């Protein structure tokens, strides 16, 4: 896939949920209590420092508190005044699994060939997320030329975006690359360059 822009895709920094290893799914709506920890802010600062010479032109972010904080820290370090928030970058909506132990949703989602189509009541499938991030990226590719774009989001949207930008076309491409660790879940504060 030939791209018009360069993409820097970053996962938000650590929150109290990750610090305390809370195995509970986030709620889909905004939760003002899920903010970055001090360690989370430090990891974001460190990652943003590595991008200082990249000439970032634009920042796009999910609107959730943890990603907003991440975007604000990065923007300050990179000298970017405006952050663009886009609904297509929000975290997966786990529907009936919100507020429940992660093991409940893992068993539901990670079922072999149906992994992309499994959709909990009131929630999203990986195919749903892929469609929304594809629309977002296709729009950026049409709207901008030669830009260095920082995108701040969450694990599921990020690994699907990264696979799409790497030219994956079929579900099997995504799953094989993930199994081979070529396109795995990003770590907290991790930056992926495409």
UniProtKB/TrEMBL annotation:
Positions contributing to substrate binding: 66
Superkingdom of origin: Bacteria
Gene3D superfamilies attached to this UniProt entry: Phosphoglycerate mutase-like (3.40.50.1240)
Protein name in the entry: Phosphoglycerate mutase
Species in which this protein is naturally found: Candidatus Staskawiczbacteria bacterium RIFCSPLOWO2_12_FULL_37_15
